[in-house]
Amino acid sequence: MSDRDVEVGVFLVLMAGVVLLGFGAARWRRPADPYHIEEWSVGGRAFGNWTIWFLLGGSMYSAYTFIAVPALTYGIGAIGWFAVPFAIVTTPLTFIFTTRAWSVARRHGFLTHSEFAAARFGSPGLGALVAVTGILATIPYVAVQLISLQAVLRTVGFGGEWPLLAAVALVSICTFRSGLRAPALLSVVKDVLLAWMLITAALMVAMYGGWGSAFRGAATRFAATPNPADGLLLPETGHLGFLTLVIGSALAIFAYPHALVGMLAAKDRDTVRRNAAALPVYCMALALMAMLGIFALSRGVTPADGDLNTVVPRLIHEYFPSWSAGVAYAALSIAALIPAAVMSIAAANAFTRSLYRTYLRPDATPESEAWTSRWVSLIVKFGAAALILAVDPAFSVDLQLIGGVLILQTIPAVFLGLLTGWFHRVALTAGLISGLVTGLVMLWDIPKLDGTGRVVAEHFGGSSWSLGDGRSIYVGVVALAVNLIVTIVMTWLMRAAGVRDGHDGTRPDDYHADAGDPYLQRLDELIDGLPTAADREQQRVPSQERP
């Protein structure tokens, strides 16, 4: 049996086991009512410390980490390191914001950011706009996972489009059947396999001269390229672009719908806090993967057909033992499928709760919501597959950054809304639309360049806007600044004009609720500007008796 046969054999055996485990996840901790939307989409809000740890790692540190970031450091060097500091910055943000989000969502039965925005500012219309923005931003992020999966399949030897579509179909069926339980269970397998891959990678680097040799070799290769922007150090004109990428990505990552899904599955507030505090452990894996792009460049690894997303799979093929390469391929494939599943669940929840139930079927039962979410999750995954067949980004990370431009515009309503209800609902809506329009216009006007700086396409060539003097700035930060200015100015104007604001359906103590809270409930249908039935019921309880 050849080395290639061993690689492919180990890969196929492990992936077959993953598929069977995904199907069987529906029976793991099977609830009395498996068709309830909370059971399907957030595991009944009952996962403990270890399950949440693996689930968050599986959904947040995805193929973006293990395929897209090394491809970026391989292609242009230092700028690819923006992913490491932004991952570190997210830790305090997670600790502060997600605990508050978990509490208010647990008390009101929210499953999405959009539900919270609608309740906080008394505007189902704002909630619907946040939901649509979240769905549109998530599809490119799912596409990043599928592009990475396609790169692995191509390296293994399964070229063409049918292997990717077959893999998407299998993960879609597993998600449809098992909901969040499938990615939660598979995340454990993924982390075990990835730990083995990272240990093997570290030993491989040590065997071939260590990191010093790798960085010297990469520096020599960058010096020989015609692109002035690449290299191991940022050019003097690259600092602004790097800094804004870090800030924008750090703000965006936990505004995505799927970030909330993993947290809402936690059984109590302490579980959220512990896992938020431990997330920096994954940053070490991210840093190692970023450096593997440098190592691959120094060793002269050639991507398949010029596709930089194949750099890590090709490195594995050339330098890992054949059986260990099969394990690594399986780890990378699972790292793509798990977040794709969680992201599709989150996007489906946003549609079901803020569009379907609010406007299409107000009397929807939890069971009908669950079935609607299941079908929409399929549409999201296959929509992302269609997207990657239609576009050809220079780096797959560009798709995620373009999605980040969109999701950043929900920050005032979602993240800042967790801290204050001062903003006016009309101002938030106007600000969000202004930010989206600004971001899309700027993205449209960015040309796509090749490695020599030659324009190869006129539009949607990336997410960094050139300032004309060699410097660039991340479009998402500019669009968010426009959004915030419009929101703040219009809030002052609305207040001065006496325009009626929406009713805040939350209360200060909602943001500190924990498991066992006697006032946990599902959110009734919101009526714009009026108290809900749940609000009226809570108003009957004296404030001193509330936790």
Automatic annotation (TrEMBL):
Mode of membrane association: Multi-pass membrane protein
InterPro entries, sorted: Na/Glc_symporter_sf (IPR038377), Na/solute_symporter (IPR001734), Sodium:Solute_Symporter (IPR050277)
Pfam families for the chain: SSF
Segments traversing the membrane: 6-26, 47-67, 73-97, 118-142, 162-180, 192-211, 240-265, 277-297, 327-351, 375-395, 401-419, 426-444, 473-493
Subcellular location: Membrane
Keyword field: Membrane, Transmembrane, Transmembrane helix, Transport
Protein family (similarity comment): Belongs to the sodium:solute symporter (SSF) (TC 2.A.21) family.
Protein name: Sodium:solute symporter
Organism, as annotated: Actinoplanes subglobosus
